[in-house]
Amino acid sequence: MTLKWFNLAFKLQGSVAPIILPRVLIFAGFAFFVSLFHYYEPQISLKVFGDLTNNVVFNLVLGLLLVFRTNAAYDRYWEGRKAWGTLVVNIRNLARLMQISTNCSEGEKLQKEKSIKLLAAFAIATKLHLRSEAIEQDLDEILTEKEIIELRNAKHVPLELTLWLGDYLQKQVQSDRIDTNYFVTMNGHLNALVEGLTSCERILKTPLPPAYCIYLKRLILIYCLGLPFHLVTEIDWLAAIAVGLVSFILLGVEQIGNEIENPFGHDFNDLPIDEICTSVSANVEQAIAYSLK
Question: Signal peptide: which range, if any (predicted)?
């Protein structure tokens, strides 16, 4: 366990250290320049410039903003995970109900299986939609070329797929292949898919107000530039190391918020949406294969 702890502590993948390192070096370099100036001009007092870093109000505001920034970013991350949990649960239930409750002949089974596969297509299309990526070969195994062209021309691809699913269910209930009670339940799951999709879009299109981010960056900048003037009179040349460590802590916490603010991307700290979509596709295939038993 101890070795694992140290391996995780020094792990670079998923760490914000490589991202903030240039900024840390800039602040440490500035602190070294201040130490150099103090060495050659010791009669000039520089501590007055660093007194702000000891101010209780300044430190309190900086700490509160860092906590708020991190909590707000994690709330978005967790809300995104719950929204995808909603999508997964309703896709599984809808695939299960469509498979076991639709009475169709042998010739109509192919259409039913194709409609169930639209659920996997919905998950993949939602992933691409949230990442603002175009449909390439992601749906080739699920949809025909004509259907893919239709989706590429659609204004909202995931919503278009829910319309196809709703149309299929409506036709089945009108043909008495689905019991009305089952239809109501399945339509509820379809509505929940739209709700989960909308929750993801709400997170994506409602970023943290820029004023908070700008103000926090300014406070960190003021603190890291003022700190060397306070430390240089006490620890001389070690001020650069101390400022580097302090800036590493402050910049690291701020960067973590930046990393998880949008949880739908490709970064290591984003939600594992690719794995979720793979799992959903496997669940859909399992539901379709049930009739083969």
Answer: none
* CB within 8 Å of 279: residues ≥ 6 apart: 88
User: For 229-257, b where at least 16 C-beta lie within 10 A, e where not — what string?
Assistant: bbbbeeeeeebbebbbebbbebbebbbbb
Query: Read out DSSP for 16-81?
Result: SHHHHHHHHHHHHHHHHHHHHHHHH-TTS--HHHHGGGG-HHHHHHHHHHHHHHHHHHHHHHHHHH
Can you give the length of the chain in residues? 293
Rounded Cα gap, residues 112 and 76, in angstroms: 37
DSSP 274: H
d(CA 261, CA 80): 10
Report the run of H or E that residue 123 belongs to, with start and end: helix 109-130
Assigned token pair, 197? 């999709």
Question: In this predicted structure, what is the pLDDT of residue 43?
Answer: 61
- Interacting residues of 113 by C-beta distance below 8 A, sequence separation 6+: 288
Q: Which range among 37-41, 73-77, 289-293 shows the weakest confidence by mean pLDDT?
A: 289-293
Give residue 238's pLDDT.
Answer: 84
CA angle 156, 116, 184 (to 5 degrees): 85
Question: Which tokens go with 93?
Answer: 């239930």
